[in-house]
Amino acid sequence: MASLKGDDNSSSIPDRSLNLWDDDFVQSMETPYGGSECRERLETLVKEVKILLKEMKTGLDGDLIERLEMVDTLQCLGIDRYFQAEIKAALDYVYGCWDGSVGIGLGFGSVTKNLNATALGLRLLRLHRYDVSADVLENFKDKSRQFFFWEGNNDNNENIIVEECGMRSILNLFRASSVAFPREKVMEEAKIFSTTYLRQILQKLENTYKKSFLKEVEYALLYEWTRTFSRWEAVNFIEIYEEDNLKLKDSKIIELAKLDFNILQFVYKMEMKKVSSWWAECGIMKLISIRQRPMEYYLLGLSATDEEEFYSSRMAFTKSTTLLSLMDDLLDDYLTFEQVELVVKAITQGWDISIVQDIPTDFKRIIEFIFQTVHELANEATEKQGRDMMPFITKAWADYAEASLQQARWNISKHAPTYNEYLKIAATTAAIGPLLLHPILLAAQHLEDNTIQKTFNNQCRFYELIWLCTRLIDDVHDYQDDKLHGQTSSAISCYMIDHPESSEEEALNDINYMVDQLLKELTWEFLNQESSLLDWEKICFNLNKGLQCFYVYGDGFSNHDKGNKQRIEKILVDPIKI
Q1: Do 256 and 42 form a contact (C-beta atoms < 8 A)?
Q2: Among positive and negative, which fits the CA dihedral 28, 34, 35, 37?
Q3: How confident is the model at residue 208 (pLDDT cuts 50, 70, 90)?
């Protein structure tokens, strides 16, 4: 939380209140991809690509890498959900050829193991929870324990092609390192080595390599697997594949990817219009200066679950995130400490609006809107789950509110907590509990009481990691802004108190390193062979990836981040030309 203001609300939040996507703009968005003829063409293309996949040759040199590249293509283009059986068959075949000590070659029975095939295979097999060890990468080091690959010269086109093949191996080595588990030293070494080489590539003249390859390298370095999501990856790889049409074995694949993207975009636009109308009609933005991010929050919900059938979850996510942002701005910038206490009391005592009757009228209207919308979401969840969900929802919101009150006490008293003391409270103020609970209750058919309590009361490591990653990445990017708001504690400042020898830069570096280690542990929790996470748990994991992506350029929620603006334009506004 930031500093608490007095009753005078004349102070405003600088420019953060601007909504780049006003209701008039959103309602004007049209697209021709909602008709039945588009769906029929999509079904035809899916059938034709299935035939193409069945015709892949077996037993010939190159068949392993062919299978892996096809699986990778389907996933990168965001159309893998149509081909789950084919993907499993391809990966089962690859896994049958996998040598746990040295990896694989280009084809079945290959004597010489290949870095490109092994790195690509390691990543894809791990993403599908096959039991594969990163130790196979040790076989691609020289006597000095450095990774090696064939690096040609630029004397003629043939050597340039050889070098590009080598660099493709390094790119796949880097991508493999993004699914590292904790304490995998070889993965850390692979990441350092490949990052250095790939950055050198980007510094060379564009005509040295194909533009598509340079785009792919640039995307990989900026958006690792733990920091991207399906729709964003799809639109980027559609652009990459269009730059190099030889990369695809059949034009039907790219046509399918484009059509699928545009049809889903039509669905999302219809949903956005409802979100925008809801926000415009509430009139809250006329009462105080607050962050207006309905489209950004909708896109964040989309990063967690982009399937058509989860419409109600996306709507609930957008609304609950908007409410939490609204509450955060209200508590941080407008209410006195005594008024914050009343709001927290009203929530914890069963959403009793009478407790806040004496606070200023505009503030009371905002609180009434929050309470009313929470009740509407609770009614939807109750209908879905077949029993009263309000006790669970109240608990999640009450935990968030009480943690926010504790941070307010620290600000008032100028108390500087220890790092662990801060994190215990601040992880809860990241609001992951209520943020996830609303959409998940609508996504899952039936959740047992003990499952809900374990999940949203932060009683298992999987969810604790999501909470911690969210809080720390937010603190890293909001540190300076929070200081300007008068906030006395953050992960960085508390870390520096515990480590007085550390400079601010060193503390930031250490926190970033902690985030990387937490993401590795979270990746292990999600991808290890024993993991049996359900669809709604995958939504929670994907949300963390979306959040990490939204912070690539900075805090895209408090400020109008260039990355989020571009993502909204490319994913939600502009159709892909077919």
Answers
A1: yes
A2: positive
A3: low
Nearest to 438 by CA among 356, 482, 379: 379
User: Where does 258-573 sit in CATH, by number?
Assistant: 1.10.600.10
Per-residue pLDDT, averaged over 185-195, amounts to: 96
What local confidence, expressed as pLDDT, does residue 173 receive? Answer: 97
Whole-angstrom distance, CA of residue 480 vs CA of residue 228: 25
Cα four-point dihedral sign 347, 350, 355, 360: positive
Number of H helices, E strands in the chain: 23, 0
Q: Are 71 and 83 in contact (CB under 8 A)?
A: no
Sign of dihedral through CA atoms 488, 491, 492, 493?
positive
For residue 103, the cross-strand partners are 99
**Given this model, what pLDDT does residue 461 score?**
87
Q: Which amino acid, one-letter code, is at 409? A: R
Cα 469 to Cα 519: distance, rounded to the nearest angstrom: 7
**Core vs surface per residue 546-568: b (16+ CB within 10 A) or e:** bbbbbbbbbbbbbbbbebbbebb
pLDDT at 73 over 80: yes
The DSSP-derived string for 7-75 is S------TTTT--SS-HHHHHH---STTSHHHHHHHHHHHHHHHHHHHT---SSTTHHHHHHHHHHHHH
**Helices 84-97 and 63-76 meet at what angle, rounded to 10?**
140
Nearest to 342 by CA among 476, 156, 351, 558: 351
Amino acid present at 439: P
- The CA distance from 201 to 314, in Å, is 39
Helices 157-177/211-222 angle, 10° precision: 20
Query: Helix H segments across 135-184?
Result: 157-177
- Residue 218's SS3 state is helix
- Token duo for residue 557: 């929620």
